[in-house]
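User: Second chain of the day. Same drill as before.
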Amino acid sequence: MNPYIPRKAIIRSIRDETPDIKTFRIEFKDGSFSFKPGQFVMVSVLGVGESAISISSHPEDADKFIELSVRKVGNVTGSLFKLKPGSTIGIRGPFGNGWPVDKALGRDLLIVGGGCGQGDLRPIILDVLRHRDRYGRVEVLYGARTPQDLMFRYEHELWASVPEGCLMLTVDGVPPGVEWRHNVGVVTTLFEKTAIKPENGLVFICGPEIMMHFAVKGLTAMGFKGDQIYLSMERRMKCGVGKCGHCQIGGKYVCKDGPVFTYDDLAFEPDRVV
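Assistant: Same format as last time:
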């Protein structure tokens, strides 16, 4: 497929995740689709523009549909939110390298998400659920601003039921009258509760850059090395093919060399963000 030409896709259903995040289930008009966990697509709304969106569904479902969990932050996503099931959009991709699933096989996995970054991590969580025997212990740590800002709440019970694993939730604050039985504080306050150790562990992180910065500090203090920490750096991606330069970090293009990098990949870049 030509990476510069969008494929036509139809929105089949729309789910509300949070007050400003929706999940769009789409099907392609011209055949099947394949991707790796952690890859993204360029979504185009006719007459408005394009936006980079991570795929939040499992690759094994891609012959039937893919899901895109979208936060409303600008003109393109705002226009996308106005569309209804049956509407046509354009899709280019998939782009990027994705999470290193092959390196996680047989190892303990710590999955750390913040805010809408959990959409990028959901394919990995779904893979653990479908193929539990491929991984060691798996822990999911997920933080958001408030309980209402947590994505995929309808799946949390399932995530928490994973054998040899757990789900830990935290929020920055709880509005008056809202019931909350989990942690309050930034996601790094959960690190002291994890059973994942550096000896056999890998860490996958996606969220706001400031969260990832402090997550890396906490993890390195726990003994994790830079090549054990993987971060998804989805920032300012405009073309998806390494041509426009908007997403450049030092000598690397996030859309082409990433979006997933080890901390070692980024630690010595002149304008590193973590």
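The longest strand covers residues 7-18.

User: Great, on to the next one.
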